[in-house]
Design brief:
With about 80 residues, the chain is an all-alpha fold. It has one domain. About 70% of the residues lie in helices and about 0% in strands. The longest helix is centred in the middle third of the chain and has 18 residues, at about 20-35. It is globular, with a radius of gyration of 11 Å. The protein starts with a helix and ends with a helix.
Length: about 80
């Protein structure tokens, strides 16, 4: 799953997510995939969604609905 890979291999290494944060991030990712109707986890778009959510989380956003909406709005235009 792309989002878990990003969380495990944080390039900057300067963000430590708590278990409850990870749960929210994963929930946002799953919700965004459903909203965007992305079912193939090998689709490059799936990784782009994961990166969008991950970057927003690194900037401090933790609300899963807002994280989901950030990704959905970016890719549904």
């Amino acid at each position: 799953m792309p989002i878990r890979l990003l969380l495990q291999h944080d390039q900057d290494g300067d963000h430590s997510f708590q278990p409850e944060d990870i749960s929210k991030i994963v929930s946002a990712f799953e919700g965004a995939l459903r909203a965007l109707k992305l079912t193939n986890r090998d689709d490059p778009a799936t990784l782009m969604v994961a990166k969008t959510i991950f970057e927003a989380a690194k900037r401090g956003e933790r609300d899963p609905v807002r994280l989901r909406d950030i990704a959905v709005n970016r890719f549904s235009k």
